Amino acid sequence: MSKQLSEQLDAIDEFEREPVPKSHVKNFKSFVGLVAGEHIAGTEFVIGPLFVLHGVTAADLFIGLLLGNLLATASWTFVCAPIAVKTRLTIYFQLEKICGYRLVSLYNAVNGLQSCVLAASMVAVSATAIGLAFNLPMPGLTDLYPTSFAWVASVLLIGAVITLVAVYGYDRVAAFSALCAPWMPLVFVAAAAAVLPQLGLTAWGDFWTVANQKIWTGVAAPGQTPYTFWHVMFFAWLCNTAMHIGLSDMSIYRYAKRPTYGLASAVGMFIGHGMAWVASGVLCALALQGGNANPSPGQIAFNSAGVAGAVCVVIAGWTTANPTIYRAGLALKGLAPGAKRWKITLFVGALASVLACFPGVVSRLDQVLAFYALVAAPVGAVIVMDLFVLPRLGLVSNYAEKTGTRFNWAVALTWLLSMLFSYALYVYTQSDFFFFMAIPGWFIGATLYVVLSKTFQKVPTAKPTFSHEARA
Amino acid sequence: MKPVLKLLSYLGLALTVVPSFLVFYGKIPFEQHKAWMLVGTVLWFIAAPLAHRKPSTPA
Predict the structure, then answer these.
(1) How far is Cα A110 from Cα A374, in angstroms, rounded to an integer?
(2) Considering only Cβ atoms within 10 Å of each terminal Cβ, which end of chain B, N or C, has fewer?
(3) What residue in A sits closest to B48 (Cα-Cα)?
(4) Is the pLDDT of residue A196 over 90?
């Protein structure tokens, strides 16, 4: 996160229902600063250890992260950024033009609730470090339900603070996030480098041997399903499905001068989803070696980097939970346009805090993100097809805008059936990872939308009625 | 004053990361790197806001 995001979000409010004018486009450096900060979150302290606990091998991890992060960068550069630059609209407004106000409100609600769960995971990660400071029993990386009253109290306390700051002082948090951006990745690197000798590594030449024997051993922890190269690659590629091929980052990239600015995402990917995941995996391996089979993110950071590590966990969780709560509030505001933003933010923060009491939102973070991917992928497919394919088939783009409909059934059925088909495929193939279904889900959504548009579209009326009148 | 603060902020970042590599090369004990990292963190969070603050422009 950075100050630029604060400015972007202010600007998002400014151009919610119109294309960003050329005078307001940003330079490449702004995008690098923005995405580099956004992808170094408290949850990186969870994802790196998940790969260790699921028994990934070192080769699978490094090759999987390399390819997955390249594919994620490509998804931003070749799918999200070109559409954002072409339309210069937020996904919410573009989607409203296609599917109508009522359906986009439903999408906003689902999106807002998912953001709530993500914010909850970040609150929970921060709380593990707070609990550590007071020597309270904290849940580990495999717990699902609240483990103690002290844990619930820690979560609610930190959730309340985060929510109040989100309500009253978003700009200050954004400025503070910008301040933390160069420091946080260094804490990850430093913590990992310092503990390597305890894992038996004293010369860089032996790294690969130690990595295979002590860190990414290929042996899953008891109760965890084994992960392979494919799990790592698909996770790295698709953990941000909603943002790239699901197109929610249109809201950011509509400010890009050129579609190639999507390449800025590589910085966030290879620092946050590469280096930070590797580093936190190293720290988890040390905890496992010390006999702690179920470490918390706070413990992992404190044991390797002391007080600064625990502070890093709190800050990483806090600075990313705040904009997530803010975005969830914006998304849910569509359901109650008359409500004050601060009231909605307060509601979202309270909901996220209650959800955060369940450590399952952290220990099952990979599955939470995978479900998010399944929901978001068909929506991105609908927009891509609507912009590029429908006109070539003689069908109408932006159907709701041109016909004045408030609920486009072609989109609604595409969304619902894509998720159902993806889930059926998941069950039929006996897959152990939802993420494997996100790409089939995208293509199922694309195909269904074209077929259903052909079925449902009627010749548009000459009178375009939409937007502000349609809301009345 | 600003160049000095900038230098101090970079020193803070250096103290955050360099001692860990000194641990790796066996030059300092593990616990010492935690202390230096804390010093570096404090230094960064004190010096950086002042050093990297942009001058406010009149409205």
Answers:
(1) 12
(2) C
(3) A179
(4) yes
